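re: that chain from earlier
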Amino acid sequence: MKKLLILLILFSFTVSFVGFIGCGPKYASEETMTELAEAKSACEAAKAEVKSLEKQIEQLKEEKVAKEAKIIELEKQLEELKGK
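^ sequence. v structure.
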């Protein structure tokens, strides 16, 4: 009976050991690492493009405000000329 218990304990230890080994860390393949690097590079490029476009939007907003002010100024001049 004692031998059976020892064999059962050894068997369960072996099964659990194999189970833990099978669940160990899996390392990414070289192809996956290359794809990850490419995706990271594309992400950085996209972030840079977003920043560039945001700056461009701000510049265009400033231009719009300046042109609207110019329109108001020209409309006032037109009214003055019509009044004469």
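Residues 74 and 80 are 10 Å apart (CA to CA).
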